Amino acid sequence: MYFTISNPDQTRIDLIGVRTDRASIKTLHKTETDAQGATRMSTSPNLRIEAGESLVLAPCGLHIMLLDLEIPLVEGETLPSRLKFYGGNDLTVHVPILAPDATGPMP
Ligand SMILES: [Cu+2]
Fold it and tell me: Does 102 map to a domain?
């Protein structure tokens, strides 16, 4: 799952989890390429957005990984997802479901 989170506040915020009823496992992932050129993903306990900054989740970088899908994702639908932030300010977003080879949201 990819998106951009902007933090217009004076204090940093931490994304600590994501909830969706479609998949039983959701993890915050970071894709890294090592000196040998091998790419792998590591799990991150939270994603921090500093005050006034934006955090971009994009291919080859940060992303939210859905594992163990209970209901298949259908292109063109949206996936309601609850973003959980440290401190309790949760946010529901409706993430468009794109084809696996899509490069970004449809215009
Ligand atoms: Cu991943």
Answer: no
What is residue 6's three-state secondary structure?
strand
Whether residue 91 lies inside any domain: the answer is yes
Residues near ligand 1 ion, CB 5 Å cutoff = 29, 41, 65
d(CA 97, CA 73): 7
Q: Strand 13-19 relative to strand 47-49: parallel, antiparallel, unpaired?
A: antiparallel
Ligand 1: distance of its center to the CA of 62 in Å? 8
Q: Cα of 10 to ligand 1 centre, how many Å?
A: 30
Residue 51 and residue 9 in contact, taking contact as beta carbons nearer than 8 Å: yes
Give the residue numbers spanning the domain of 80: 4-96
Percent of the chain with pLDDT over 70: 97
pTM: 0.83
| CATH value at residue 26 | 2.60.40.1890
CA R_g for the chain: 14
